Amino acid sequence: MYWKETTRQMIDIGIGSLVIIGLVSVFIGAVTAIQFAYQLGGSSIPKYYIGYIVRDIMIIELAPTFTCLALAGKVGSNIAAELGGMRQKEQIDALEVMGVDTTAYLVLPKIIAALTVIPMLVVLSAFMGMAGGYIACTLGGLVSEAEFMQGLRAFFNSYNIWMMEIKAFVFAFLLTSISCYQGFFVTGGSIELGRASTSAVVISNILILLADYVLALLLT
Amino acid sequence: MIRIEDIKKQFGDQKVLKGISTVFEKGKTNLIIGKSGAGKTVMLKILVGLIQPTTGTVWYGDTNFTALNTKQRKAIRTEMGMLFQGSALFDSMTVEENVRFPLDMFTNLTKKEKEIKVNKTLDRVELAGSNNKYPSEVSGGMQKRVGIARAIILDPNYLFCDEPNSGLDPTTSMKIDELIRNITAENEITTVINTHDMNSVMEIGDNINLVHLGELAWVGTRHEVMETKNELLQDFIFASPFLQRLRDAANRNKSA
């Protein structure tokens, strides 16, 4: 096991994605809160439900799915381009001639790093989404701070956390393994490298959405 | 010594190698020469195991390399060093890290021992002091020398070079040739070079193998090149009008 390479990948995927995931999540949480408040309108449903809905929708769906869709674009294309570039510059051949197990050295650390770091990013995304909802509600005067916090604490089911983490693991595996495959077996020149990078993102996104559907059926 | 027997390689309908048998001798710079598309690179990749031949056998000493599985090949691969056409250095690593890479992978040397060996090897290829530079910060010739340093750091018994002079000016090219020749002689290793550089052929060609359209067309030494009547070799070596004029002048002087 190549720990140094795995650590490097963890830093690349984890630290390198903090800003984008944070930004995406804050806005998703804020928009969810505003739109749910709009849908409630003058209905009799208590306003604290906004906090409750933001919390659960972030945990069950938006945090794992949006985070991994965003990471498929950022990390997936990066992995495909890195491995594809190494293939084209004969660096993978150089490793093979040296007797290095290229799958163990290049692919496995990326998958292990993703499986370790992406679930953490998803947890962060859920928190940032709730923070975004809180900011949007309190700044926009949609609901009082106390009501939003009441909603965040209401009807909590810890099983949802498991659901979020299972989704995060499956999506993380999908996006890294597909991107590694697309990059590792690239042939030809820069046009093919670009295509491989695009395919990594497109295929990952489609499979993440498909897996999201299957997991929703299985886990709920 | 490396021996290949009746190596054939076919990609779809295209026959790239059509049954090549030859010997690459220990302590000598063995050259594979030929026009572009002759099958030189495929032959070199078959030698190092990056491509599996359709039929035929590659022998490393008494070991049938072709018959070995990936795990068994590892043992022989630690005895190999290879310089790639584009150097194939790892972009994210410094010169020192690139050269140290095989030591990190395959030895249990201490940090100090590795440092000493890396510096000695960098010194050997005249790159002392370039330890902390990245591949993108050094010239093409220096990249080739870093590639050679990485290839020889584990003291290999076999050194392979794919187009070591491509993209280099004549002076740098000659330095690379000299370096490869000296390393081969000093360490008594089997060196196989894939080239179409005429200077290399005439300067370091101890055992020259001309490949033409997937077949072995001529085998000999650099001393025999000028004397041969083989038309394919003549066409290949004296392709440029300048070299043709030199040959004609030499022949005129001889007859006079």
Automatic annotation (TrEMBL), chain B:
The organism's place on the tree of life at top rank: Bacteria
Stored Gene3D superfamilies: P-loop containing nucleotide triphosphate hydrolases (3.40.50.300)
Stored PROSITE patterns: ABC_TRANSPORTER_1, ABC_TRANSPORTER_2
Pfam families per record: ABC_tran (PF00005)
Domain (ABC transporter) ranges: 2-238
Keywords: ATP-binding, Nucleotide-binding, Transport
GO molecular-function terms, A-Z: ATP binding; ATP hydrolysis activity
Protein name: Methionine ABC transporter ATP-binding protein
Species name: uncultured Aureispira sp
